[in-house]
Design a protein that fits this description.
Radius of gyration: 18 Å
Order of helices and strands: EEEHEEHHHHHEEHHH
Shape: elongated
Strand content: 15-25%
Distance between the termini: 58 Å
Strand order of the largest sheet: 3-2-1-4-5
Number of strands: 7
Length: 212
């Protein structure tokens, strides 16, 4: 049985895990500090889960969105990136930040993650740079999959501009003749704190690229 999502009461919180009670059954879920910091015992929450099965154990890794879960899986395509490192990366960088780091080849941004050194960061950039962002478990992410962790305390985590929209905007600019690095920088600057649609983001990025 593969568990993809859990919705229930937060029964306990630990240093790197949580216990969620779903209809009287307690599930231990590994989680990063960012997710754990958004939860409190006694509240209800919905956790997106990646299930890993080995000969000796079944481990559940928890995330605030399916997009984060998808990046956790994608990062482990890189040789040398195991579950612990992938969790640290998703904990340190949001999906849009991960996409920006890969588009810009920003190794120092990748090394923000605990336990990820320069050599491993360079390997991650080398392996994943230029690739499109990961898809959700059942295709493209819908609005709900990008939403914050839902708890009875209200939204727990602010969402950013979807990495997929940024990637499509960069691709459009590259098709217009701009270099991938300058296109990525323009898109990153243009996105700012708002969430424009694709055409709006491309127009804003073109303004950034226009000669001053």
């Amino acid at each position: 049985m593969i568990i993809g999502r859990l919705k229930g009461d937060i029964a306990a919180l630990g240093i790197d895990s949580l216990l969620v009670d779903v209809n009287g059954v307690g599930y231990v879920v590994q989680a990063g500090t960012r997710l754990l910091g958004c939860l409190s015992v006694g509240t209800k929450a919905e956790i997106f889960v990646e299930t890993r099965v080995t000969d000796s154990s079944i481990t559940l890794f928890g995330f605030s969105t399916d997009e984060e879960r998808a990046w956790f899986v994608r990062l482990q395509d890189v040789p040398g990136v195991a579950g612990k490192s992938a969790m640290a990366l998703v904990d340190a960088l949001s999906p849009p930040e991960l996409m920006d780091a890969l588009l810009l080849g920003d190794v120092s941004m990748i090394t923000r993650a605990k336990g990820v050194g320069k050599k491993l960061a360079e390997r991650i950039v080398g392996e994943l740079s230029g690739k499109p962002p990961p898809h959700g478990r059942f295709g493209r992410f819908d609005a709900d999959s990008r939403a914050s962790v839902a708890t009875d305390r209200g939204p727990a985590m602010a969402g950013g501009l979807a990495a997929g929209v940024r990637s499509e905007a960069v691709s459009a600019l590259v098709n217009l003749g701009y270099g991938s690095s300058e296109a990525a920088r323009a898109v990153s600057t243009a996105s700012g704190e708002s969430d424009p649609d694709l055409s709006g983001l491309i127009r804003a990025a073109l303004k950034e690229l226009a000669p001053s």
